[in-house]
Design brief:
Four copies of one chain form a homotetramer. By secondary structure, chain A is mostly helical. Chain A contains one helix and no strands. Chain A is rod-shaped and about 115 Å long. Chains A and C meet through helix 1 of A and helix 1 of C.
Chain lengths: 80, 80, 80, 80
């Protein structure tokens, strides 16, 4: 091949490489962004489940207290 | 520059391009995977919230029914 | 004793008997009244207890339904 | 009338008066007994109503706490 042809091919390759590397940077930025969103979504979800767990425990104690109230009423009715 | 030198540079560029394109494919696969996980996580979350909404409505109706029971008891006590 | 004296005693006794019989009638009327009030009070109390028993059963069913709701929430949280 | 006849009437009246007074005592005892039972029944009823009033207040506070729990759940769901 002639030196000119090599020069042409080299320039084309250099251009293609530049584009591919630029595409790479874009993809890596998107990947980082998605990873951050996924991580933040999991932290949020963790906090959400923690709040729900507190609510479940609160609901348990309310059901327990209603059951005690029910038993007090039942004893009151037996005694009368 | 000599033809040899151009040949060497072209091979080096071709190699570098191949690596960059391979890296690109890896990144795109990771990106697709993450997008699917995020989407599936959002669908799950949507279903979760729908179930919670049903529970909230059920809780509302139970509180309403307890309030009716409370009013019946209050009336019974007024009447006696 | 003289007939006069007997006559006087007889009149006094007749008067005393009349008063005692009148007092008897008053007491019997009061007794009847109290018995009716006691009976009516017991019927009322019976009705009251019946209403309370219905409320107790209603409370039982509300506690049962809240417990089902609590179990549904617990399962939802385990699954997520 | 003869003294004998008056004597006979006086004795009959005295006997009748004794019986009526005895009947009076029985009636007064029954009346006292009933009054005590009615009073004790009213005291019991008062204590019963007091206990029921405490239960009603307890039920009010449980319904209030369940409503707070419900509002916390609703806010948690809005925020997510």
């Amino acid at each position: 091949e002639s030196a000119n042809e090599f020069k042409f091919q080299k320039d084309a390759l250099t251009q293609k490489l530049k584009e591919t590397e630029s595409r790479n940077q874009t993809l890596e930025a998107q990947l980082n962004d998605l990873e951050l969103r996924l991580e933040s979504s999991q932290l949020e979800r963790e906090a959400y489940r923690k709040s729900l767990r507190s609510l479940l425990e609160l609901l348990d104690s309310k059901i327990f207290e209603l059951t005690e109230l029910r038993d007090t009423l039942a004893k009151l009715m037996e005694g009368s």
